[in-house]
Amino acid sequence: MSAESDQWLQAGRIGRPHGLDGSFYVTRPRPLLLEVGLSVRVEQQDLEIDRRAGTNEKPIIRLAGISTPEAVEQMRGTALFCALADAPKLGEREWWAEELEGCRVVDGELVVGEVQRLLVLPSCEVLEVKRADGSELLVPMVSDAIRSVDVEQRKIEINIAFIGGV
To answer: Residue 94 has what pLDDT?
Structure first.
């Protein structure tokens, strides 16, 4: 991946209008990225969130510069992005999915594959890893399976024996 300043996190998508002031529902929301004062990129334009209401599951926001339901309707379905550099910092041993995608997955000297995406399953989150032979390996995001994550080095060290993926 490129430098952190060039990385973007999808915060959600513009949904249907709410009210007459340019507010709208956000579909597929990531609540941490939808707080008042944060800037989001919409079609190459950076706009500040100046209103936040609703719930984390169904947030309602308004962006500075969008003031009518008609304007919202024209942009409906458009993705909202937040710069990784501007995103709230996560706790220790927490990462944004985008930070993990593309990381090399190894077990010591054994190259296992590359992270394709992070999946959220009922019991835990898992890394979907594409192996060199084209097969997929699911690596649970638990300490028994993952020894270390180094986002800067784009490397994740796993315990392949624990996963049973030898």
So the answer is: 85
Q: Which residues of the chain have pLDDT under 50?
A: 1-5
Domains delineated in the chain: 4-86 (2.40.30.60), 97-163 (2.30.30.240)
Please report, for residues 14, 41, 137, the alpha-carbon distance to residue 63 in angstroms, rounded to integers and kept in the order given.
Answer: 11, 10, 40
Report how far apart, in Å, the C-alpha atoms of 10 and of each of 30, 41, 83, 112, 123 are.
8, 9, 9, 28, 24
Q: What is the model's pLDDT at position 86?
A: 86
